[in-house]
Sequence to fold (254 residues):
Amino acid sequence: MAADFAEATTENFLGRGGRAHGVLARVRGEMDVALHGVSLSVGGLEPLNEQYLTELAALARQIEPLSISDHLCFGTFGGHYAHDLWPLPYTEEALEHVVQRVERVQARLGRQLLLENVSSYVEYRASTLSEWEFLAEVAERADAGILLDVNNVFVSARNHGFSPTAYLDGLPARRVQQMHLAGHSEAAGFLLDDHGSHVTSEVWQLFEHALARFGALPTIIEWDERVPGLAELEAEAELARAVARHGTSRAVQR
Fold:
């Protein structure tokens, strides 16, 4: 089964040549490639990493990616990278800060940035907006796109007690351009976005709602832990195609 497109973790290919770039170039010669970053820290307080942006812009010119995306979060503090995706306080002050930074990133790249919603396990008392209101406002004010992670919506909704369908219904449909699916696990009463299992039936049902709201969009199933054999991964991808074709999660059969 041929893949529809590939997603590459941006940081694995910045400022590097050799075999890594050779593999990326070969894949790009056969299909579209989306660049998906994890360290932009667009919500952080430190200045944006100019070297990172320079190398990202150069990589984009080289491979002409389907899209460039990163996470609506912060992952830097005190000059250090946390190697994690921390949620933001959803306030007007944070909103203005993030919009300005997204606009600067897009100006450097000369193209739109897609922002992915993260899974979260804490909330801020200072927040005055819901997460989906914050994401929608950032996308609209900065003229950015949204990479909607359906599993992250479900995980955060269960952890914090909000409606996952209300989240989807609160996003501007024209801003959502790609989607992610993944599996999750449970520990100490929380759901954890661990990308280590099959997509659950509840997330397939939420994906169905997303398809009705946003249409069939380029979708990746993330599986990073306890990775099974290729045949099982291909079967999971075919399930996503079936749900998209039929518009219902009843197409999912194991």
Summary: The chain has eight helices and eleven strands. The two ends are 18 Å apart (CA to CA).
